[in-house]
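step=encode ok
step=design start
structure_in=
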């Protein structure tokens, strides 16, 4: 079992003992998504795969939060924010903008990338280096800006 899945499982047990029922619901939901993916793929997910699942869960909740906020559904927006906060507790520390820009520039230099044709290889290398620590959309924008000059 990966460290992240074990941490999630331990957190569920602790939350159950503390009778934090809403937190338990959120954690079990995430755990169920992970287990379903493992069943579908017929393999055990490692920490990088679990981080991908957590990122997708966060993205879904952020989208819902935006919709609920725009439609003045503060009750549902509050619930989504609560879930976001819980899931964020399992994510590694996010990279700041300057750290991310430096990593993008270093990778472009290391690969000798000069045009948009090189974007795929740069993104592939950066994906593994930034797993769970940066939004791929932001990385893509930085790479695109750097390659277009």
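sequence_out=
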């Amino acid at each position: 079992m990966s460290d992240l899945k074990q941490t999630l499982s331990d957190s569920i047990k602790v939350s159950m003992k503390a009778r934090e029922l809403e937190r338990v619901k959120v954690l079990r939901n995430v755990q169920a998504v992970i287990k379903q993916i493992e069943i579908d793929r017929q393999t055990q997910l490692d920490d990088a795969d679990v981080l991908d699942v957590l990122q997708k869960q966060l993205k879904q909740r952020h989208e819902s939060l935006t919709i609920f906020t725009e439609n003045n559904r503060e009750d549902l927006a509050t619930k989504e924010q609560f879930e976001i906060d819980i899931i964020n507790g399992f994510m590694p520390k996010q990279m700041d903008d300057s750290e991310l820009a430096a990593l993008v520039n270093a990778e472009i230099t290391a690969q000798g990338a000069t045009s948009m044709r090189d974007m795929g290889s740069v993104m592939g290398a950066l994906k593994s280096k930034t797993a769970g620590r940066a939004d791929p959309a932001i990385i893509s924008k930085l790479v695109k800006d750097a390659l277009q000059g």
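step=design ok
step=annotate ok -> Helices lie at 3-17, 21-41, 47-70, 74-88, 97-111, 119-129, 136-148.
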